[in-house]
Design goal:
By secondary structure, the protein is mostly beta strands. About 0% of the residues lie in helices and about 50% in strands. The chain folds into two domains: about 350 residues, Methylamine Dehydrogenase, Chain H (7 Propeller); about 90 residues, Immunoglobulin-like. A hairpin with a 3-residue loop joins strand 31 and strand 32.
């Protein structure tokens, strides 16, 4: 909760509010589509990452593509705003991009060829009667869309990109009677969330997309289940309740469910940063739960023991100074995407954030699924720090690796490239003597080392004092 205490003393109002971060650092922030107070179609929606670029939905302003190769200086490289649109989700696979549309203008998906993400080619949009799709997921053999019309997950063959063909549906359980609002597909299992007062979730086998089979369907009261995500081993799932607080109940929770025995499903834990603040989405990455928590910003939990989630880091993207919007509980952080120890976050009012989480030590692959690969290096803090004239970056490689070490300034400009080669496993000490690419001494100040090792990115702040 944003703890705001109004103290009236001698006619003065003094605001006091809570800590805004723990074990997380903001590297950059971009203001995107303008938020208009009271207009629920404005502002920034979900965020997606793929191979050096972030794709950010902007609701009634379409979507943008952001080059995040420099985490301290992300650059918008493409903007799509067709006018009459309502884009809340963007996903990519290989060279294709699908953006959902809920504006009831006859278009279900906007589709692009992103072979060159800085210059996408718009393809024929997918025609659809009604309010379109809220969420989309792409697998190599099928496209999954959460339909606002059928209230189901509709499954399409997109091998002919100009003529999508409906091949199957996942509809959960008629007793829940809710819209499947959000979904992910992991290892041929579809996980879908029912956003209704007495909602819940469905787990379906989609190994054959033309014949999906429901394996688990769970409903529970006072839920408005917004999203669902499985644990790495598939024995637990995590759900979020997009439930606003009222006089009789608190805001919703992130809930943890033991699904190891499909015949004996049970809730084993729940979490909320504040019982008065709505929760939105959760993504599970190895032993971490990364949460977009609306007015509580980004939250990271250690879920090594899923029965006892422990908050270990947070960053508030929606601080108390956003007073004009604070009466609406559905404000603040909408989406998150983890990439190594970086978290890309979208905030309805405040746009796009690149955050560094000190506690994350595993990486997603540079692709648009949530497969995991191990971190194969250890970068230790440079020494000395602050330094003058030279500092050393110790790097341990556990296997043969592509290594790129680059120094950036606070404006995201490349200062010096320390290393860019393939190196064998072993221990290395890389030094920087405070000079730029041309051998000229740089001024005192803060700089950033970007260490890219086999697609895993780590950012380290260094200080030069003269």
């Amino acid at each position: 909760m944003k703890k705001l205490l109004a103290i009236l003393l001698l006619g003065l109002t003094i605001p006091l509010f809570a800590q805004t971060s723990l074990n997380m650092t903001m590297l950059s922030n971009l203001t995107l589509a303008p938020y208009i107070h009271g207009n629920t179609r404005s502002g920034t929606a979900d965020v997606w990452y793929d191979n050096g670029f972030c794709f950010v939905a902007q609701r009634d302003s379409g979507f943008v593509i952001i080059d995040v190769s420099s985490p301290t200086n992300p650059q918008i490289v493409f903007t799509f705003n067709p006018g009459d649109s309502y884009v809340q989700d963007v996903k990519t696979l290989n060279n294709l991009l699908f953006a959902t549309n809920e504006s009831n203008n006859g278009i279900g998906f906007y589709i692009f060829d992103i072979t060159n993400p800085t210059n996408p080619i718009e393809l024929q949009p997918f025609s659809y009667t009604g309010k379109g799709f809220h969420n989309v997921w792409i697998e190599p053999n099928a496209l999954y869309g959460a339909s606002n019309v059928s209230k189901e997950i509709e499954i399409y063959d997109y091998s002919n990109i100009n003529s999508l063909t409906l091949i199957g549906t996942v509809n959960g359980n008629p007793s829940i009677n809710g819209e499947i609002h959000d979904l992910v597909v992991v290892d041929d299992k579809l996980y879908g969330a029912f956003i209704v007062a007495n909602g819940g979730f469905v787990v379906a086998d989609v190994s054959d997309p033309t014949n999906p089979v429901n394996e688990i369907v769970v409903g529970y009261p006072n839920s408005f289940t917004h999203n669902v995500f499985p644990s790495q081993d598939g024995n637990y799932i995590f759900t979020t309740d997009e439930n606003a607080p009222n006089s009789t109940q608190p805001a919703g929770f992130m809930r943890v469910w033991d699904i190891s025995d499909p015949n004996n499903i049970s809730q084993v834990a729940q979490y909320s940063a504040d019982s008065t603040v709505v929760i939105h989405n959760v993504i599970i990455k190895n032993n971490f739960a990364i949460i977009s928590h609306y007015q509580e910003g980004v939250r990271i939990l250690d879920v090594t023991n899923p029965v006892q989630p422990q908050e270990i880091a947070f960053y508030d993207t929606f601080p108390i100074n956003n007073l004009p919007a604070i009466n609406d509980v559905f404000n603040g952080c909408w989406g998150v995407y983890p990439n190594g120890n970086l978290i890309y976050a979208s905030d309805i009012q405040n746009g796009f954030f690149v955050l560094q989480a000190d506690s994350i030590t595993t990486s997603v692959q540079e692709s648009n699924n949530f497969a995991v690969k191990k971190k194969t290096f250890e970068l230790s803090q440079n020494y000395p720090n602050p330094f003058n004239p030279t500092t050393v970056f110790p790097l341990e490689l556990k296997e043969k690796s592509n290594v790129k070490l680059t120094i950036f300034d606070v404006k995201g400009r490349v200062v010096s490239e320390i290393e860019n080669s393939v190196l064998s496993a072993g221990d290395y000490d890389f030094s920087w003597n405070g000079t730029d690419r041309f051998g000229k001494q740089v001024s005192s100040g803060t700089y950033f080392l970007n260490a890219e090792v086999n697609g895993f990115l780590q950012v380290m702040k260094v200080t030069l004092l003269k």
